[in-house]
C-alpha cells in the first residue's frame, strides 16, 4: 500500500509510480527509465496527472530488484496513499513569461524535506508561478501561488491605457489621464507590470500565497487561503508547519478538506502568523490599501 506501489485490476501485477519532483527528469534519467522498463518486459509507461511516470504490469516478486534499478537511475519508487506525494510545479521563472516565482526550485526543495512522510491523510502539494494556476494549486491539500502587486511610479503616467488593455480582470481604469487600480478586482498576477511601455509599473510585495485543504476528485473543493509570505525560506517553514499540524492532529480515513474546522484551522493560522517575522509577512488588507491609496496605478 505504500511507496508508490499500486495494485492493478489484475492483482497479480503492480504499477510502480516514480518520484519525480516538479516533473523534471534529465534526458539521461528518461533513457534510464526506458531501459529499466524494457529490461522488465514493459514496452510503454504512463505519464500521470501528478507529473510523474508509472511503470505498469510489474509482478510483486520483481519489486525489490526494480526498486534498486530505479534508485540507481536517480528516479526512485515514489509515493501514493497517505503520504506526502510527488510535489508538482509549473515551469515558473525558468520559462514562463507570466511567472512571479521559481516554482521548480521551490518544489524540489519542499520535496527534499517532506517527500514520502507518512501521514494520516494524503498530502498533495502543488506550486504555480502565478494566479493562472496551471497546476491547480487550490485543488491540493497545500497550494502555493506566486503573486505580485503592481505600483506605479507616482506622477509619471501618460494615460496610454496599455496596462488597462492587458489586465484581464478589468482592475485598471484611466481616470484624469492616469491609471487607477481597483484592488478588489486585482488578482496580483503582475501582467500589467510587464505591459507598461514606459516602465512605470513596478513590482511591489512579491509573495507566495499558501492555501490549505483543497482537493480534486469526486467532490472537488478549493483550499482556504492560509498565509502570504515574502521569502522562499518562510514558505518552506510554513509548509513544514502545516504538514506537522496535519500529521499530529488529522484523523485518518477522511480527507483533510473534510476536517479543517475540527482541526481548528483558523486558530492554527493565527498561531503560524505569529511566528512569521513581520517583514516577511504580507498583510492582505494593509497591502491592498497601499495600492488603492493613489500611490500606485
Ligand atoms: S501558472 Fe503562471 S507561471 Fe505557471 S505556467 Fe501557468 S501561466 Fe506560467
Ligand atoms: S496585477 Fe492586477 S491590475 Fe495588474 S494585470 Fe494583474 S489583475 Fe490586472
Ligand atoms: S501605467 Fe504605463 S501603461 Fe498604464 S496608462 Fe500609465 S503609462 Fe500607460
Structure description:
The protein folds into two domains: 5-72, Alpha-Beta Plaits; 88-295, Sulfite Reductase Hemoprotein, domain 1, CATH 3.30.413. It has helices spanning 27-39, 63-72, 103-114, 162-166, 191-195, 232-249, 265-275, 284-295; strands spanning 5-7, 14-17, 46-47, 53-58, 88-89, 125-128, 142-152, 172-175, 178-181, 201-212, 224-229. Strands 5-6-7-10-11 form a five-stranded mixed beta sheet. A four-stranded antiparallel beta sheet has the order 1-2-4-3, with no helix packed on it. A two-stranded antiparallel ribbon has the order 8-9. A hairpin with a 5-residue loop joins strand 3 and strand 4 (53-58). Mean pLDDT is 92; it is low at 285-295. Helix 3 packs parallel to helix 6 (232-249). The longest helix has 18 residues, at 232-249. The N and C termini lie far apart (54 Å). It has 297 residues and is of the alpha+beta class. It has eight helices and eleven strands. The structure holds iron/sulfur cluster (SF4) (3 copies). One iron/sulfur cluster (SF4) is lined by residues 150, 166-167, 169, 171-172, 181, 186-192. One iron/sulfur cluster binds next to helix 5.
Amino acid at each position: 500500500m505504500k511507496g508508490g506501489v499500486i495494485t492493478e485490476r489484475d492483482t497479480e501485477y503492480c504499477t510502480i509510480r516514480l518520484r519525480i519532483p516538479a516533473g523534471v527528469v534529465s534526458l539521461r534519467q528518461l533513457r534510464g527509465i526506458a531501459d529499466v522498463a524494457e529490461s522488465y518486459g514493459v514496452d510503454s509507461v504512463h505519464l500521470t496527472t501528478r507529473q510523474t511516470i508509472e511503470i505498469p504490469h510489474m509482478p510483486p516478486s520483481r519489486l525489490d530488484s526494480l526498486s534498486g534499478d530505479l534508485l540507481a537511475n536517480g528516479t526512485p519508487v515514489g509515493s501514493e496513499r497517505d503520504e506526502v506525494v510527488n510535489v508538482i510545479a509549473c515551469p515558473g521563472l525558468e520559462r514562463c513569461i507570466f511567472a512571479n516565482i521559481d516554482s521548480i526550485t521551490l518544489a524540489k526543495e519542499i520535496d527534499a524535506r517532506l517527500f514520502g512522510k507518512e501521514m494520516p491523510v494524503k498530502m498533495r502539494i502543488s506550486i504555480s508561478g502565478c494566479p493562472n494556476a496551471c497546476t491547480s494549486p487550490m485543488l491540493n491539500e497545500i497550494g502555493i501561488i506566486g503573486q505580485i502587486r503592481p505600483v506605479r511610479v507616482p506622477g509619471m503616467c501618460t494615460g496610454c491605457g496599455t496596462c488597462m488593455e492587458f489586465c484581464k480582470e478589468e482592475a485598471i481604469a484611466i481616470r484624469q489621464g492616469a491609471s487607477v487600480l481597483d484592488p478588489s478586482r486585482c488578482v496580483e498576477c503582475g501582467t500589467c507590470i510587464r505591459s507598461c511601455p514606459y516602465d512605470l509599473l513596478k513590482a511591489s510585495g512579491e509573495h507566495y500565497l499558501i492555501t490549505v485543504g483543497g482537493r480534486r476528485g469526486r467532490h472537488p473543493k478549493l483550499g482556504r487561503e492560509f498565509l502570504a509570505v515574502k521569502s522562499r525560506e518562510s514558505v518552506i517553514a510554513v509548509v513544514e508547519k502545516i504538514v506537522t499540524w496535519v500529521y499530529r492532529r488529522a484523523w485518518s480515513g477522511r480527507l483533510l478538506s473534510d476536517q479543517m474546522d475540527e482541526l481548528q484551522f483558523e486558530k492554527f493560522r493565527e498561531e503560524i502568523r505569529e511566528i512569521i517575522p513581520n517583514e516577511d509577512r504580507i498583510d492582505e488588507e494593509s497591502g491592498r490599501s497601499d495600492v488603492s491609496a493613489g500611490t500606485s496605478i
